[in-house]
Each structure stands twice: as C-alpha cells, then as structure tokens.
Amino acid sequence: MRPTLSVLQHSARVTLFTRANCSLCASAKAVLASLEKRRSFEYKEVDVMAEGNEVGKEYEFDVPVVHVQRVFHTYSKPDIATEARKLMHRFREEEVEALLDEAEGHT
C-alpha cells in the first residue's frame, strides 16, 4: 500500500533533549518508546551536554524536554517545521499523543 498524498506532505517530528545520568530522561525515553509502538513519527534525540553541540543548550538544566513539530516536506527547498510545542520534565504518553494529533492536523 502506498502512503496517501497528505502523509507525504507533512509529518510530526519529536525531538527529545536529554543528557547522561538523568533518571527523568530515562522515563521520558520510555514514554516515547511506548508511544512509538502505536504510532509512527520522526524521532530525534539531542544530548544537550555533547561536546560541540549548541542545539538545545538552553535546556542544560531543564531536561528532559520534548519538542513536537509539524514538518512540511518539499521537493524544491528544505523541510519547513512549525514552531515547537514543548513538554518539560515529567509528562505522560497522553500528553505527547495530544501534541502529535495537533501536529498531524487531527484536532
């Protein structure tokens, strides 16, 4: 089965800002892994403490942080992402799923 045109035009991107030795980060990863078993989304982890990494430095003392964005895929220019909706520290699967629904245009 081929994906529909609407699936090809946009998708949801989830970015987890994390760091080593963070128990809340481990819980956040478990929440996202559980959700990923039921839904597909683009997933990326960013270690805010990685040497040379400037992305996510503003969350150095606030991890874990999840960004959920709607990404528009284009052929002629780079993908365009909406402003990130954020969840910080402790969050439930239902909260992430609600943001995914919003990003995918289901609400």
Descriptive overview:
The protein contains 3 helices and 5 strands, in the order H-E-H-E-E-E-E-H. It has helices at residues 5-9, 23-38, 93-103; strands at residues 10-18, 42-47, 65-72, 80-81, 85-88.
Global shape: globular
Helix tally equals 3
Rounded Rg: 14 Å
What is the chain-wise order of helices and strands? HEHEEEEH
Helix fraction bin: 25-40%
Distance between the termini: 25 Å
Class based on secondary structure composition and strand pairing: alpha+beta
Quantity of strands, as a count = 5
Low-confidence stretches: 1-8
Give the averaged pLDDT, no decimals.
85
Tell me what portion of residues adopts beta-strand conformation.
25-35%
Largest sheet descriptor: 5 strands, mixed
Write the layout of secondary structure elements.
Blueprint: H1 5-9, E1 10-18, H2 23-38, E2 42-47, E3 65-72, E4 80-81, E5 85-88, H3 93-103
Parallel strand pairs: 1-2
Antiparallel strand pairs: 1-3, 3-4, 3-5
Task: Briefly summarize what is shown.
The protein is of the alpha+beta class and 107 residues long. 30% of the residues lie in helices and 27% in strands.
